[in-house]
Amino acid sequence: MTGETFGEIGPRKLTRFRHGNVTYDQRDGIGNVPDVDNVAYMGFVVLMRPSTYLAICPPLDLATKSPGLRTAIAEGKPISMGFIQVDLTDDEFVVHRHEGRNRARAILDLHGDDPIPVAVLLRGGDRARHVTDEHLARLAAGVRRQPDDREEMLWHRFGQRTPFVEGPLFERVLLLGEERSVEPAAADFRP
Fold first, then answer.
1. Does residue 118 sit in helix, strand or coil?
2. Minimal CA–CA distance to 18: which of 8, 33, 3, 32?
3. Contact criterion met (CB below 8 Å) for 27 and 15
4. What is the pLDDT of residues 39-77, one digit of tens each?
């Protein structure tokens, strides 16, 4: 992943831009979500491999895969960035919500595993201005995969957690209008 940059993506261009062979449009693209359109305030953007994005979300039922989505992306129709949601107050970061598995799968199938922009949204009232270098390093080092419905029940009833996905999850971030490199935290940061 080293050497990947955001290129022309910037805070004023986050609404609509092109990255690699894909056009992203947070307002009118396929799969758009209002918070992603406002990601410069609600969180930040990372460059993450589609395979990594899929690993930190609940498993995707490949039987529900949308061939229409793959065709739309191949034809250059705009899509919205996928997102994950984390809580900065978690001792160990867990993906709490996501949108975009089918988009990530289609991009992986069409264009390979080159990093794609992924919005990271924050829970609990935190916003982009609350994110520290320590948060970024800890998140880059890994997260607990978002539980599916069955795993959620096991987590709440028995304390059984989902697998921890080791990083680096990403190396580049766009936060508060500034692109920067992120060095994942040491492995001993986990509680």
1. strand
2. 8
3. yes
4. 999 999 999 999 999 999 998 876 566 778 999 999 999
What are the tokens at 54?
Answer: 């899929």
Q: Match 């529900």 to its residue by tokens.
A: 64
The pLDDT tens digits of the residues spanning 7-42 come to 666 656 788 899 989 999 999 999 999 999 999 999
Closest CA to 140 of 177, 105, 100, 170: 170
Residue with tokens 């390979």: 112
Percent of the chain with pLDDT over 90: 65
Handedness of CA 45, 46, 52, 55 (dihedral sign): negative
Give the position of tokens 């994942």.
184
Structure tokens at 77: 């129709």
Find the length of the chain. Answer: 191
Residue 42 CA to residue 121 CA, distance in Å, equals: 6
